[in-house]
Each structure stands twice: as C-alpha cells, then as structure tokens.
Amino acid sequence: MNKQDLLKLLLFVLLAPMIAACLKKGSDDPLLSFRTRTMRLAGDWSLKKFTLDERSVVQTTINFNNTTCDTAGIAGTKTQNETVNNEFSGQQLNSIVSNTTAGVGETFLYDIDFQYNLDIDKKGTYKCQGSYSYFDNSIQEQVNGGFSVRDNTWYWRNDNQSKSAVTFVNFPLIDVTAIPNTGAPISYNDRTFNLLRLANNELVMEYASLIQDTIQQISNPVVDTSLTTCIRRTTTISNVEEDAEWEFEQ
Fold first, then answer.
1. 3-state SS of the chain?
2. Residue 101: is its pLDDT beyond 80?
3. Are the C-beta atoms of 26 and 195 separated by less than 8 Å?
4. Which of 9, 64, 125, 161 has its CA 20 to 30 A from that of 87?
5. Domains of the chain: which residue ranges?
6. pLDDT at residue 32, rounded to an integer
7. What is the mean pLDDT of residues 183-192?
8. Pairing relationship of beta strands 104-120 and 43-64 according to DSSP bridges
C-alpha cells in the first residue's frame, strides 16, 4: 500500500463515525444531515399537529365463597370501556371521550383553544409552557389556564449511535381526561418517544403502547351471618392501548 492509499484509508477511518452520525435514523429523517441529532433536537419548538387514539377495557369480577355473603348483590362481572380521540391543528384541540359501564354510556366533547411550546436544550434539559381555553358544560363557565415546567431533563433512550428514541422526564401530556379532576387538559408523566422525523425545522415523535394488567384481591367483608366465614374475591383485568403522534415546527 503506497503512501497516498494509506492517507485515504486513515481519512476514511477518521470521518466514518462523523458520517454515520449524520445519516438517516428515523423512518422519515432526511437522508443526510451535517448537524448531529442532538443539535437538531435542540431548539424552540411549537406544536403543529397532534393525534391521539386511546382505548381501554377494564373488566371487574366479584365472587363470594357463599351467596349468603353477597348481601349487597354485587357479585358478577362489570365491564368499563373508554375511548379517547384527540386531534390538534391550527391551535385548536378537538376531543371526544366516550365511557360505557355495564351498558350505560356517556360522551364528552371538548373544543379547546390550545398552545403548546417545547424548548429543548442540547445539554439535556427542557422547558415547556402553554395555554388553554374552553367552555366547561358541567359548570357552565369559560375556563382559561396555562401550564409551565422548567429545567426538566431529557436523554437519549438507546445508545448514542442510533439516537432513535428520546425520553422526557415529567413530560406535560395532552390529556383531556384530567379535566374533571384538575380542570386542565394536561397530565405529567415520564414518556419515551420514537423519533419518526428529525430535520432542521421539523420534529415528529410517536408513542405507542399496549398495557395489560391483572389484579386479584381477597378480603373478608363484615357480614351479619353466622352461617359461614365470608370471603370476597375481586379480579380486575385491564387492557389499555394508546397511539399518539406529535408534530412540531420551529
């Protein structure tokens, strides 16, 4: 190998990691970018579009060791279904929440003026703030409010080579189901997103999950009977499926 070929090989070895870091990682990423993914992620982002489809089924079964113990007539199985559909664009959040329990259902509609801004620092912290305004039919009043978090942390979920998923600690999630409890369409939780597209002025993240859980409880209810010792068994089976996509712009 002559000196010129050796120099080319050395140059390739030195540049290969840099080139790999700039190549496409997300499914909709640009083919090549000369800014690292950390540099592209950092910046002041405004939410452009948001969609959420959430489906949950909770089945609760109560059994007693003796029918005499069921003095309140609560033995049996009840199923609760809930669906949440959110669409956000043009600073307007439209939400439909439907609940059905034991065949009886109710639906809540929300039309919310909404703003959401995310400021990500390349050193691993972020700030988030926003505002909301909607008419609450339950109290027949207009509700105006805001939310803000500062100095929360973020980190690449996987190794530094791929950087295809990012975790935000205590992230403000758009959650209209929180309105009956807090009045705000926001809840907070750690959340890991897959990055579908990370360009200079565009950020698209997705979150998809399926959580299945079974809880069994045994108790000894106090029942006025001398026939038997009462034992109540409660089994709760839950399935929660969520698909969400967040699109930001600078």
1. CCHHHHHHHHHHHHHHHHHHHHECCCCCCCCECCCCHHHHHCEEEEEEEEEEEEEEEEEEEEEECCHHHCCCCCCEEEEEEEEEEEEEECCEEEEEEEEEECCEEEEEEEEEEEEEEEEECCCCEEEEEEEEEEEECCCCEEEEEEEEEEEEEEEECCCCCCCCEEEEEEEEEECHHHHHHHCCCEEEEEEEEEEEEECCCEEEEEEEEEEEEEEEEEECCCCCCCCCCCCEEEEEEEEEEEEEEEEEEC
2. yes
3. yes
4. 125
5. 35-249
6. 45
7. 97
8. antiparallel
Residue that the structure tokens 């307007």 belong to: 92
Name beta bridge partners: 152.
126
The whole-angstrom separation of Cα 235 and Cα 74 is: 13
d(CA 188, CA 198): 24
Tokens of 76: 């049996």
Q: Which two tokens stand for residue 41?
A: 């992620």
Per cent of the chain over pLDDT 70 is 82
The first and second tokens of residue 156, run together, are 């690449």
pLDDT of 17 over the 60 cut: no
